[in-house]
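Subject: for your reference before the review

Hello V.,

The reviewers asked for a structural picture of the protein, and I figured it would be easier to keep everything in one thread rather than splitting it across files. Below is the amino acid sequence we used in the manuscript, unchanged from the supplementary table.
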Amino acid sequence: MDEQTKRAGAHLPPGSETETRMFILTNNPTFNFGAGVMGHKMNEGQFAPFLLLSAGNHSLVLKRKDLYSIDVQSDKGSLTDLDGYILGKGYTMQPGQIVWLNSVVIEVMEAYNGLPSRVQFRFKLPLDDPNLLWFCYKNGTYVPFTPPDVGEAVTIKGAPFTIG
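And here is what came back from the structure prediction:
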């Protein structure tokens, strides 16, 4: 997987030690895969704050609510294929639950089996701000992604994880 994450992240722009930008990776084969890509960037001396919106081989619908907000919904009930792996067995998330990060507020809009199935991400910056660098996983690498216009939606294919 190490070589795959290096290869996948090779097309991401470089970061820096004074990075004010954020990488937003819309779909990822697994959460560990996306984190591994960013880990390689940091090992190369490039600071790259990042946000993973989902993980797994399922399609997503991203609907832009306004200048600052986007809803992300999975077609398979959960935004991750890992179920209890991320949160730990017995931990569940419910609609209305909110997670605050430095530059984004994440609200669970719908849940399936205790995991988020539709989440709203509300950023401090407009989604089109050049400091938000959007990418989606396609054919083994990350490619630039443009969020939909306000009121519009776009579907992104799943990110299958393959070994080799």
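For the response letter, the relevant points are probably these. The mean pLDDT is 82. The chain is about 15% helix and 35% strand.

Happy to draft the paragraph if you're swamped.

O.
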